[in-house]
């Protein structure tokens, strides 16, 4: 690769993903990865400027939470997670999944996946979770996501609990977004910048963007990031909805299981042999790049 870098200055590595080595690398290499990913790489000036504008608008109105609400149509179709969807929607999502030959997993048991914690939280489940975690209802909730499947109908519970629900499309004029409208990656880049600066970041699913934002916020000083335990949450939510636990019991338990899941210092999980997907992503928790004091806290925890 070095001769190519020397000749062309920039090399595009196609199809790289989180299966890049996470552990057992020299400390100087790990720190270099952080300097490149969290410091060297920049978005275009147009994206950076518009991101700063969104952040400024939000800051003028007070604290804000970024909710990475993964409830877009493609996410639901390919994950097979259909909790809360009506029959027509389930059929539509299934057709979409079968329309892509390269997607190998066709028959999916939605409820089993949900109980295993493998589905993104629904907007309704998210509203209950934020309330249980004592997120102030007066806070602005910025939705960092594409179009929510089911639209306003599925957002009703979240809007009722958190009326200051906003997104980039409601904060910016159409003329400001016209260059981004057909470029989903650029729209996601705006959400990424806003996510870094939020008072709290809450991803409802641990996808690639959520993981990198988590790590970047750690790198910036362990900014509060609530890492939801979806497997335990859906069990508690089902018990609450069935009347098996009171609201106070539900809220207390939700807070307890997340007390150490706030983006605080922690060790990076190493996978057992032949199961690389169970290993923590380096960029989600780049402990080698954090200060000596923070590393000491990690070691003692």
TrEMBL record:
GO BP: fucose metabolic process
Pathway the protein takes part in: Glycan metabolism
Subcellular location: Membrane
Annotated InterPro entries: GDP-Fuc_O-FucTrfase
Membrane topology annotation: Single-pass type II membrane protein
Keywords: Carbohydrate metabolism, Fucose metabolism, Glycoprotein, Glycosyltransferase, Membrane, Signal-anchor, Transferase, Transmembrane, Transmembrane helix
GO molecular function, one term: glycosyltransferase activity
Pfam family, one: O-FucT
Any one of the GO CC terms: membrane
Similarity annotation: Belongs to the glycosyltransferase GT106 family.
Record-given protein name: O-fucosyltransferase family protein
Species of the source: Genlisea aurea
